[in-house]
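thought: fold this chain, then report.
action: predict
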Amino acid sequence: MYYGVSYYPEHKEPEALRHDLLLLKESGINTVRMGEFAWCRMEPQRGEYCFDWLEDVVNELGRAGIRTVLCTPTACPPAWLVSAHPEILYVDNRGVTRPFGGRRHYCYNNETYRRFSAGIAEALARALGGNPFVLGFQIDNEPAQEGTGRCHCPVCVRKFQGWLEEKYQTIEALNRHWGTIFWSMEYDSFSQIQPPVNTIEVHAEQSIPAYYENPGLRLSYERFCSESQIEYQNIQAEILRRYSSHTVTTNATGLAANSIQYYQGFRTLDRYAFDFYPDLRSGEISAFPYAFARGIKPDRAFWILEFTSGGGHKLNGGGRKQSSPGALKQAAVHALAHGAEMLLHFQFRSFPFGAEQLNYAILDADGLPRRRYYEMQETAGLLEQLKPLEKSEIVNSIAFCFDYDTCWALKIKPVNEQNFDYIKYQSRLFRLLGSRGYGADVISPEADWERYPVLILTSGFLMSRSRQKKVREYVERGGIVVATFLTSVKDEHNTGYTDSLPAGLTDVFGVTVSEVEPVYADNHTRLKLEPGKMYVVEDNVWSELLSGPARPLGTYVEDYKQGSMVISSHTYGKGKAYYVGTDLPDRAWGELLDYILSTSGIQAYPFLIPEGVWVCCRILQGREIYFLFQFDRKEVMVPAKCPVEDYLTGERYETHIPLAGNGFCIVRKSHR
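observation:
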């Protein structure tokens, strides 16, 4: 595993640089990441390139066994470029132009900026692309971060209009698909269409409250901007590959925080890579982002280019909690267990200046090694011991389907926005499956579903006719699909279907949705759940009354809904289609999933998993290797259904596995 830190040699005076390089070499890490904000040092004046300072650090670390991920510095255009070409600046949805002085203040569609970005990327690749100590390249930094992914400058407006014309061909077709007759919004030409005023960007502000725009316009702009970001990225990727055979990637942020379609965005890159900042003090590290990462490029291990180090100030001045003792080591093993090939802490030494001053880091600003440094050193040694496990693989039989169009559509026009978030809901069900002892992947709607016996289709809100066909054929051939409320409600233009819901799939699920409503604090309704033993729970989030020939698994028992089916099971072809028309409490959801999976032949892990413990399984030479993690700070005993032995120590556990607080254990079934 590539393990290390982000480092910023351009900040350092010679004495501080020598101090840091010595500590880096003594730390045991094997990777650093550098350069993402150093354009003014790489090209201090137009066309005047200077990489000697960077090459010296790359070579010195490389001779000590530490390789470098180099970044193109295009997230921060320098002052001379902005002064000469102010037209490159970003314009937000309020019409406000971002001035020089922060970061990401550029328009990704501006041809002038693209030309200068290509220039610095080419110069960097020429200078260091063949260096044997360079491991790979990161393009830009966190594209679209901090509300910079939806530019409204004149260049973007014209390009968006052209994008729409290419997609729809005629203005009449666009009007028909978007339903612009509503509120007399019909367009006469593509030149009349402006980007939406509203935005779903994280950290962005709405400029006109209670201004309701066409959902088709808004979803189209999300797609256009995502494709524009990808187009800008690929200009640099092509140049880097021209001069180097090293890995080329960029660093995503979360699953959908920046509204870039990562399935598309990483198609032309060598690795999926992202930044991840979980709480290492009092929270469980979610494995959901790792499952998602595996689904972006299933044939390549993913990289984590920025990861929590603990302590210090945040970018906005707030603080981050320190990591618990042992948590850095646990986190690195946790990432490795779930498919990571790289984990780099942000950062090595805290900044004394700038917007990120006194930020979280392995070393504080004084540069003295303390607890975090020594734990990183210990972790680096441990990862060397675990190198044989890099040949193991993750094999899951269950997959969640994550769809960007659905994610965006439910942000554009939310459904019960108080209680329902598409990403959080998928993550919750993923966590529930794990607590019952089942591993799962997260995959694209375009992926091959056939390798998974069970597909969980969480609120497949937007579904084209071809997607409906894919669901139908999957079940018909023997797949088990578990769909939740809000399935197949809108088409790919973000326009509601006029046929009965779930549109195009009523025969597959054996149900028709006859009535819907959100569920708030004052209108919960009880239902009886009958997967095996019967018990009564309250609905939550959303309620759909179902009718049809499907077998009821959940039925309302009160109010006017009494006797109405809300959860169903239906055989279609060789497979089974389950429809869950409401949300359930965790225990009830768990029982329902247990029941469904018991009919599929999928085996749970051989442990009774306590609260706060997470289990992951990898296969090495046909043998299961289990990673157990305890995220609480107290020791716990994990009941095992069969004897196991510790992978690192060889110790045998007959019935219980001891897990230290913020600790982990790697075991395999005992052959003795």
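thought: worth noting. The longest strand covers residues 512-519.
final: tokens above.
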